[in-house]
Specification:
Elements lengths: L1 H30 L13 H7 L6 H20 L4 H20 L12 H32 L9 H25 L4 E2 L1 H10 L11 H17 L2 H29 L4 H13 L2 H6 L1 E2 L3 H19 L1 H5 L2 H17 L3 H16 L3 H25 L12 H14 L5 H11 L4 H4 L6 H4 L8 H17 L1 H12 L22 H5 L9 H15 L10 H17 L10 H11 L9
Helix pairs in contact: 1-3, 1-5, 2-5, 4-5, 6-9, 6-10, 7-8, 8-9, 9-10, 9-12, 12-14, 12-15, 14-15, 14-16, 15-16, 15-26, 17-22, 18-21, 21-22
Length: about 575
């Protein structure tokens, strides 16, 4: 008995010491300067690591003590989970990626010598451990929160619940609606209105349907005496549509028997996290597109759970193709999302798969007629092919920036015929492709493009790591939850469309001082521990990964189809011109 007690005591001490080491590693990873310190050149590995910490204070020591207690408590209530551990360390690799690219260095930063490799190991172990225990606690908490309750007692009660949720969200968002009057003009909104009013040639670079939709609201406001009022009406309709869809979501969750605490938590997040009302009031081509994607995803959930009920709902089956068409009219990439929906709905439909197949065929046919016949007939030109070449152009630009002097005159001439070689390295911004694309030669011949492509693939073969760096540097923010967004602000508040305002349209914000205060408040909110992550796109990517992991763990394989649209959107964003930009 004495021996057994001694062994158990020894195991307990070893476990506590391990928790302490893991806590130290986590705090070290959280506070480490991942960049290579020049003054450390030639120093020992330990010295280089310690110099990256810039010293520890009382706060770090207290944090270690707290984490040691949390890790120790977790070990007593949870058994070790290999699947959760593997998933946690997979997510920690995104932290390494973000640390490598947030200052445009590259993947070499993770392996540039023994000290950097040791720091990479600390980051993976430290963040991986924190995420591992975080997932275990989250799972335990969700199991208590998400206990299903009896299904609803009637449709009337559910409708009343939806109205309550919608009214609550509208009241919570009302201060933003008033403060930001007439709305927030995103970067593309100005270009769309300039095309609508003839200041620039009409093209389908920004979807023609969106241009007509926004322009019609502003023109209606002009008829009433205020273009700003027209923009406000556009924003008001958009916000109400968003609220209706969110209310429908909570109504759907109630119908599925999801616990009240989960539903209330979701509604509170929508009501009080600023990212939702701020973007609900944004004028552009992203918000209405997102609303349609969300509603179609909820339709997919209903079709997965009750295919016959969904098919026999006349209203939903009439609205379904309309939403698919709007998806393509709101964004040029919408057709890719529609293609992503096809296998999901057909697999969900079971015996009614032919009906869904006909709907998708009709939608795709209409979109092709719209793009290839109706728009040319209306004199609307296609967008530049350069819009779909953000990644190759950035890869070429990075290669020219690093290895331009090594290129032959023939290679330089081939690049120059398409992208203007001499200024390419100056125009290269790792997280933003528009500067590179702005000098794209729209008059380039097929022979010149073919010559450029030959050089592109030659340089890819010669500098593959540079090409990988160019790609990851442009999209890492969609996976890195601590991204601050250096290329474009994570939010935009206030409306100012220079060209139209100069001609008397008066689309400026009515309360500029209050808008400035709101901007400062949102910037401060971003720095709040944990809550600040909700302003990062990477945070929502992690939420999607976590939800998919929880479903896979429960072997709810069919429900994983719900993430196909989100995955397609994420891939489209990764190939888009801007890193970490809400779309």
């Amino acid at each position: 008995m004495f021996e057994r007690g001694y062994v158990e005591d020894r195991k307990g001490k070893t476990s506590k010491f391990l928790c302490f080491l893991l806590a130290v590693t986590t705090v070290t990873a959280l506070g480490m300067d991942f960049e290579i310190a020049e003054e450390c050149a030639g120093g020992g590995i330990l010295y280089e690591i310690l110099s990256s910490l810039h010293g520890w204070g009382l706060g770090q020591c207290l944090f270690v003590i707290c984490l040691t207690g949390v890790y120790g408590y977790a070990q007593t209530i949870f058994t070790f989970r290999r699947d959760v551990a593997a998933f946690s360390f997979f997510l920690s690799l995104f932290m390494v990626m973000g640390l490598c690219y947030r200052n445009a260095t590259g993947i070499i930063l993770a392996i540039a010598g023994p000290a950097q490799m040791a720091k990479t190991g600390i980051v993976i172990l430290g963040y991986g451990t924190l995420v591992y225990y975080g997932i275990l606690f989250l799972q335990s908490h969700l199991k208590r929160l998400s206990k299903t309750q009896g299904r609803d007692g009637g449709e009337t009660q559910i409708v009343y619940h939806g109205l309550k949720v919608g009214g609550f969200l509208f009241l919570c968002w009302l201060p933003y609606l008033m403060l930001l009057y007439p709305g927030t003009a995103l970067y593309d909104a100005g270009t769309m209105l300039e095309q609508f009013y003839g200041y620039a040639p009409m093209t389908n670079h920004h979807p023609f349907f969106q241009i007509i939709l926004l322009g019609s609201f502003v023109r209606f406001g002009e008829i009433l005496g205020s273009a700003a009022f027209g923009m406000f009406l556009y924003v008001l309709v958009q916000e109400i549509a968003f609220i209706v869809v969110l209310a429908y979501q909570t109504k759907l969750l109630k119908r599925k028997g999801i616990g009240q605490k989960v539903r209330k938590t979701l509604v509170c997040l929508y009501a009080f996290l600023p990212v939702f009302p701020v973007y609900a009031l944004s004028v552009g081509k992203n918000i209405n597109f997102s609303i349609v994607v969300l509603l179609l995803t909820m339709f997919l959930l209903e079709a997965l759970d009750s295919p016959e009920e969904f098919v026999h709902s006349r209203g939903k089956m009439l609205l379904f193709p309309v939403l698919l068409v709007l998806l393509c009219l709101f964004r040029n990439e919408g057709l890719a999302i529609v293609l992503g929906f096809i296998p999901c709905f057909i697999l969900a439909a079971k015996k009614d798969w032919k009906r869904f197949g006909c709907i998708f065929a009709g939608v795709i046919g209409f979109v092709l007629v719209w793009l290839k016949a109706i728009l040319p007939l209306l004199g609307v030109a296609d967008g530049s092919i350069a819009e779909s070449l953000s990644i190759p152009f950035l890869q070429t630009a990075r290669c020219v920036s690093y290895y331009g002097e090594e290129m032959t005159e023939e290679e330089k001439a081939a690049i120059d015929a398409v992208l203007e070689f001499d200024t390419l390295s100056e125009r290269y911004l790792p997280e933003f492709s528009d500067r590179v694309k702005e000098r794209y030669n729209n008059e380039a011949t097929k022979e010149e493009i073919d010559a450029y492509l030959r050089v592109y693939f030659q340089q890819m073969s010669a500098h593959p790591v540079t090409y990988i760096d160019a790609f990851l540097n442009k999209c890492y923010g969609y996976f890195y939850p601590d991204d601050k967004g250096r290329t474009k602000e994570w939010f935009v508040v206030g409306a100012d469309i220079w060209t139209l305002n100069a001609d008397g349209f008066d689309l400026k914000s009515r309360f500029p001082e209050a808008v400035g205060s709101l901007r400062r408040l949102l910037e401060a909110f971003r720095e709040v521990p944990l809550l600040g992550y909700t302003t990062s796109i990477g945070f929502y990517t992690w939420c999607a990964f976590l939800a998919a992991f929880f479903l896979a763990e429960k072997k709810r394989w069919k429900r994983l189809l719900l993430f196909v649209p989100s995955l397609v959107v994420l891939l489209v964003c990764a190939a888009s011109p801007v890193n970490a930009y809400f779309r």
